[in-house]
Amino acid sequence: MFISNAYAQTAGAADPGLMGNLTTFAPLILMFVVMYFLMIRPQQKRQKELKTMMDALAKGDEVITVGGMLGRVTKVTDTYVTVEVSAGTEVVVQKNAVTALLPKGTLKSL
Q1: Do 95 and 62 lie in a common domain?
Q2: Got a GO cellular component term for this one (predicted)?
Q3: Do 51 and 95 touch, CB atoms closer than 8 A?
Q4: What is the tens place of the pLDDT at every residue in 18-47?
């Protein structure tokens, strides 16, 4: 008596179409674009700069290694670099252990 009858809905939902599907995936696409410009692209640029720096290493360059050692390059091979840390002390490191090239004369000023 006091409870009304509940009937199931017979009409199906309308098809959202192409624009409905696009708006569903728009946040996902936007998030990927933002991640690309904020994370992936700068990392690729940095890797490219490091590779060109490693290829350009030459005898006499002043460098910093990953461990923080400063020195002058005395010998360069395909995969290794010999760095003179102090007078008469040379260390052999891998090329990818060199993180930065210093301007000429930096070691004299230290």
Answers
A1: yes
A2: plasma membrane
A3: no
A4: 677 778 888 899 999 999 999 999 999 999
User: Is residue 85 within a helix (H) or strand (E), and if so which, with residue range?
Assistant: strand 80-86
User: Do 72 and 60 meet the contact criterion of CB atoms below 8 Å apart?
Assistant: yes
> Mind listing the pLDDT tens digit for each residue in 76-96?
999 999 999 999 999 999 999
Burial 66-101 (b: 16+ CB within 10 A, else e): eeeebbbbeebeeeebbbbeeeeeebebebebbeeb
- What is the domain extent for residue 33? 16-56
DSSP state of 40: I
Are 67 and 96 found together in one domain? yes
Structural domain total, the chain: 2
The pTM assigned to this predicted structure is: 0.65
Q: Write down the residue that tokens 């090329």 correspond to.
A: 95
Which pLDDT does position 87 carry in this prediction? 92
Chain centre distance of CA 81:
24
